[in-house]
Design goal:
With 449 residues, this protein is an alpha/beta fold. 38% of the residues lie in helices and 21% in strands. It has 14 helices and 19 strands.
């Protein structure tokens, strides 16, 4: 039964880092709407910032991020001038309306920036936004970029969490994804950030990669655990060559099938949990004392475009090309093209070009999907008390799903709808049942497991 279920649930569904998901964004949410949302922010709140650096000095074939390969630094330096301009413009619009609780540097490869530019970028943020004294600063790190000067620069901007991409330590797998990176190289960066006072290290691992086997996954996880990370993210490789053309460099014959992917995922999860890490949502793990583990235990876990987070800020401001922000009113995304983004910044404009405004129905469905993804459960009482008639409508739908699904992916236990432990790997296929956009949409997605 489990292999049959796994085969049936090898369907392609959204990852639900947002709801509605990004394929349903539209150009009706433009710079004018975005300016209104920024101006409508109320004073006294807390903000999160996301900065996107859309460049890499090598292109990993597995990557599905908005990024481009460059062997020259001049385009990066030019892009940074535009990013400084956006920081100043947005900062002026939110001045006095909120203090920054968290910043996430993503990409691309933020760490390909020269050390002096990392410091200048950190200074620009603090000059234009009001930071809380204990603001969290997290940075995605490619160990291949790192040297002592960059480590010093990251310490100078106040980095509190380093997130290192590992993927897999097997040389054959690394060659197949164009991401050669030794264990010793990775260890040197972990040691380097810790010696500079960074108290939280996250490692990103992948399963479902070309040439991966259960044994190679076991070996990679064992090596990663010797680094004693505070968190581990264990993602399934998303093969989307129709969306990211460079993934055509990966021969699909090299990829494990759905049953093997699930076996790799479960093997890795067991190995991590056996070392005392707590399972967080679908694909994250953390030490019991970590803020992410505490948020999961207390029902305060959230999900955004960086995955699972303890960040509870309602407002997330995206800065840089293709970055996405979240506001009480909806989602907004900047121009993905770096050339057009730079032109907009030169003209003193905001870069928003698409997004979606939340309907009341979106809010309740988004709440259900987030709770399923974070807690594998939601309360019928909370649903109705929080959303009234809209909640009652979705309560009837949830009851129908729980009663009619022969696979019992979702069960009604007292006043709670619960995903049984054995079905948690398939939670995205459960969440999609509450997605009103999915059936009528034309977007293509990655595998559910």
């Amino acid at each position: 039964m489990r292999s049959e279920l796994a085969a049936r649930l090898g369907e392609n569904v959204p990852r639900y880092t947002s709801y509605p998901s990004t394929p349903h964004f539209h150009p009706g949410i433009d710079a004018v709407v975005y300016r209104g949302w920024l101006e409508a922010l109320e004073g006294g709140g807390e903000l999160s910032l996301y900065l996107h650096i859309p460049y890499c000095d090598r292109l990993c074939w597995f990557c599905a991020c908005h990024t481009k390969h460059t062997r020259h630094y001049a385009p990066v330096a030019a892009y940074l001038h535009s990013l400084y301009a956006e920081i100043a413009t947005v900062g002026s619009l939110v001045s006095g309306k909120g203090r920054v609780r968290a910043v996430h540097f993503g990409g691309g490869s933020p760490t390909m920036l020269k050390p002096q530019h990392l410091v200048t970028l950190g200074t620009a943020l603090r000059d234009n936004f009001d930071f809380l004294d204990d603001a969290k600063i997290s940075v995605e790190i490619d160990p291949n970029d790192m040297d002592g000067a960059r480590l010093d620069a990251l310490a100078e901007i106040g980095m509190t969490r380093a997130s290192l991409g590992v993927q897999d330590f097997d040389p054959k797998v690394q060659r197949a994804i164009n991401r050669e990176q030794s264990f010793s190289q990775t260890k040197a960066v972990v040691d380097g950030v810790r010696s500079r006072g960074v108290d939280s290290v996250n490692l990103d691992l992948l399963y479902g990669l070309p040439h991966q086997t259960s044994e190679s996954v076991r070996s990679t996880v064992a090596q990663a655990l010797t680094l004693e990370p505070d968190r581990i993210a264990l993602f399934g490789y998303a093969h989307v060559p129709w969306f990211k053309k460079h993934q055509t460099m990966i021969d699909e014959a090299w990829l494990p099938g759905p049953t093997e992917r699930i076996a790799q995922s479960r093997l890795a999860a067991r190995a991590i949990e056996d070392k005392g890490y707590e399972s967080i949502g679908l694909d994250h793990f953390a030490r019991p004392g970590d803020a992410l583990a505490i948020a999961a235990r207390t029902g305060e876990l959230r999900r955004n475009f960086q995955g699972y987070t303890e960040d509870r800020c309602e407002t997330l401001i995206g800065l840089g090309s293709s970055s996405i922000g979240r506001f009480r009113q909806g989602y907004v995304q900047n121009m993905p093209s770096t050339g057009e983004y730079r032109s907009m910044m030169e003209d003193g404009k905001l870069a928003a070009v698409r997004g979606i405004a939340f309907s009341d129905d979106d809010r309740v469905r988004g709440w259900i999907i987030e709770r399923l993804m974070c807690d594998f459960a939601f309360s019928a009482i909370d649903l109705v008390e929080s959303f009234g008639k809209a909640g009652q409508r979705l309560l009837r739908q949830a009851s129908s799903i729980a009663l009619k699904d022969p696979a019992r992916l979702l069960e009604l236990q007292g006043d709670r709808f619960v995903v049984p432990a054995e079905n948690r790997p398939f939670v995205r296929s459960i969440a999609v049942k509450f997605d009103k956009y999915f059936e009528g949409g034309t977007a293509r997605h990655s595998a559910a497991v």
